[in-house]
Write a structure and sequence with these properties.
By secondary structure, the chain is an alpha+beta fold. Among the domains are: about 20-150 and about 240-270, tRNA(His) guanylyltransferase (Thg1) (Alpha-Beta Plaits), CATH 3.30.70; about 280-405 and about 465-470 and about 490-515, tRNA(His) guanylyltransferase (Thg1) (Alpha-Beta Plaits, 2-Layer Sandwich). It is about 45% helix and about 20% strand. The chain has 18 helices and twelve strands. It has helices at about 10, 35-40, 50-65, 95-115, 140-165, 170-180, 185-195, 205-210, 250, 290-295, 305-320, 350-375, 395-425, 430-435, 440-450, 460-465, 505-510, 510-515; strands at about 25-30, 70-75, 80-85, 130-135, 210-225, 230-240, 280-290, 325-330, 335-340, 385-390, 465-480, 485-495. The strands form two sheets. Strands 4-1-3-2-5-6 form a six-stranded antiparallel sheet, sandwiched between helices. A six-stranded antiparallel sheet has the order 10-7-9-8-11-12, sandwiched between helices. Strand 11 (about 465-480) and strand 12 (about 485-495) form a beta hairpin. Helix 3 packs across helix 4, helix 5 runs parallel beside helix 7 and helix 13 runs parallel beside helix 15 (about 440-450). The longest helix is centred in the N-terminal third of the chain and has 30 residues, at about 140-165. Its EC number is 2.7.7.79. Keywords: GTP-binding, Magnesium, Metal-binding, Nucleotide-binding, Nucleotidyltransferase, Nucleus, Transferase, tRNA processing. It catalyses: a 5'-end ribonucleotide-tRNA(His) + GTP + ATP + H2O = a 5'-end phospho-guanosine-ribonucleotide-tRNA(His) + AMP + 2 diphosphate + H(+).
Length: about 525
């Protein structure tokens, strides 16, 4: 980290909210605008089996990736992940847990799309939001899961009736009126009498949702000297469509959770929707997780892969189109900061929903754009991003935050440029670190010039200064309406630039932070 005057903007304004200890933590992931998404991709109604199996595959990948998740339950475009009570995942930091989970889930969803929809192009990037809920004991965590399964049954029974009525010729409004005020028994009778459907014979995945957990199975670990298999119990991730409201499942799977008493009417009270303070500028900073490994697997150029950086910029530009309240973005390497204006009411300023949806959408864009930037490189590993929120009461501090990130960009890039030039010249990585230990900026410039005939200031501005994105006015269109006076309409586009973010930049672009409508 660069020791600069701007570092206080992280130290004093970063939120470090941690989930309370000795609580079971649930991360519930929900699809954003999935009514539209399912319509665009022509999902079958009331249930698209392939879409549900894709969600189950994502949940399975989550349990395989994160050992602290002990159980997951999903229905429709929603999945709940239960972390073990004593988890220290990310030191229980809420923003990190939420953003990483939703980003990884999104990444798997996009990567596995073709496995389930080989003949359907992914027409728009899917994304999800997430929230964390904490429950103090096993009884309440059981009640939470029971509540979600009750919701699954109620919604699926209603939707089954609704879509059968629509398919029989009724309008959607007429179908809603037919079902208004009906009970479960009435809906079962409607299905049986009008459509000869026994609701209990519908697929269990639709009626009961999907439970994902580790099941004990006998696995052959080796063969003895006589050719006999030696088996040991091992835990394998399993997807099942069973009743989790009653005690039978839990009695037979005591390694997951223990039995408790049931009363799921009050579980919503444990929600912990923190609101970011009003009239503050919100910065959402997104960081790639384990991108050293990711860049190595995908053979990114060192110290900078221009194509990878352009991919980050393209994803960030599309973020501004999706979120009009983002007024500015700054990024370098595998990081991007997005500034939301101080009057934003996105998600009513709920921190968890802002962080998770931004992290998920950025991940989805990154994956969807991959082939455009790397047409000859297969995406071998799912990328994932974490996010955190910072709030600043004054515009001056926001500008200093951005200056701090640019100072970090310069310090990191100058070091990496020297390091990789030394390595490429034949030095070992440890030896290169030793040579650079304790050097100042001036020393690094001299090293590059004297040993490699490089003028650091002539390196591409993209590498040295990072990327800033903002809206600019490109033209005004005057149109005459009905022969009357012309009207003036402003037209804006998103610009990517690589410049110093000092006072001169803000004087030259005063509208960026002030034109927030």
């Amino acid at each position: 980290m660069a020791n600069s005057e701007y570092e206080y903007v992280k130290r004093e304004f970063e939120f470090d909210r941690r989930l309370p200890p000795s609580n079971w933590s649930v991360v519930r992931i929900d699809g954003c605008h999935f009514h539209r998404f399912s319509k665009i991709h022509a999902f079958e109604k009331p249930n698209d089996e392939n879409a549900l199996r894709l969600m189950n595959t994502c949940a399975t990948a989550m349990l395989e990736k994160f050992p602290d998740i002990v159980f997951a339950y999903g229905v429709s475009d929603e999945y709940s992940f239960v972390f073990r009570e004593e988890t220290e995942f990310y030191h229980r930091r809420e923003s990190k847990i939420l953003s990483l989970c939703v980003s990884y889930f999104t990444s798997v969803y996009v990567m596995k799309w073709k496995d389930f929809f080989p003949n359907k192009e992914l027409k728009e990037p899917p994304y999800f939001d997430a929230r964390a809920i904490c429950y103090p004991n096993l009884k309440t965590i059981r009640d939470y899961l029971a509540w979600r399964q009750v919701d699954c049954h109620i919604n699926n029974q209603y939707n089954t009736c609704f879509w059968m009525l629509v398919k029989s010729g009724k309008s959607e409004q007429e179908a809603q009126l037919v079902l208004k005020g009906t009970f479960a028994k009435d809906k079962n009778e409607l299905l049986a009498q009008q459509f000869q459907i026994n609701y209990d014979d519908e697929p269990a995945m639709f009626r009961k949702g999907s439970s994902v957990y580790r099941e004990k199975v006998e696995t052959t670990v080796k063969i003895d000297d006589y050719g006999n298999p030696i088996k040991r119990p091992r835990l394998k991730v399993t997807v099942a469509h069973i009743d989790i409201i009653g005690p039978e499942f839990w009695e037979n799977h005591q390694h997951i959770l223990r039995e408790g008493k049931f009363m799921h009417e009050f579980v919503k009270k444990f929600g912990n929707d923190r609101m970011l303070p009003p009239c503050n500028w919100i910065v959402v900073r997104i960081n790639g997780c384990q991108f050293d490994q990711f860049s190595m697997i995908h053979s990114f150029d060192k110290p900078n892969d221009e194509t990878a950086l352009r991919l980050m910029d393209a994803s960030a530009s599309l973020m501004m189109e999706q979120y009009p309240d983002i007024v500015f973005g700054y990024g370098f390497s595998n990081e991007y900061s997005f500034v939301f204006h101080d009057k934003t009411e996105l998600y009513q300023r709920q921190e968890s929903l802002i962080l998770s949806s931004c992290s998920s959408y950025f991940t989805s864009l990154y994956m969807k754009k991959w082939k455009e930037f790397f047409p000859d490189k297969e995406l071998k590993q799912t990328p994932r991003f974490e996010a955190e929120a910072l709030c600043y009461p004054k515009l001056k501090i926001v500008c200093e935050y951005l200056s701090w990130r640019q100072a970090e960009c310069h310090a990191g890039n100058q070091y990496n440029t020297c390091f990789w030039m030394l390595v490429k010249s034949g030095k070992g990585e440890r030896e290169a670190h030793e040579i650079l230990k304790g050097t100042l900026s001036k020393d690094k410039n001299e090293l590059l010039f004297q040993q490699f005939q490089m003028n650091y200031n002539n390196e591409p501005a993209l590498f040295r200064k990072g990327s800033c994105i903002y809206r600019r006015k490109v033209e005004e269109l005057a149109e005459a309406e009905g022969g009357g006076d012309g009207t003036t309409r402003e037209q804006w586009d998103v610009k990517v630039d690589h410049v110093d973010l000092g006072p001169g930049f803000w004087r030259k672009h005063p509208w960026i932070m002030t034109n927030c409508n």
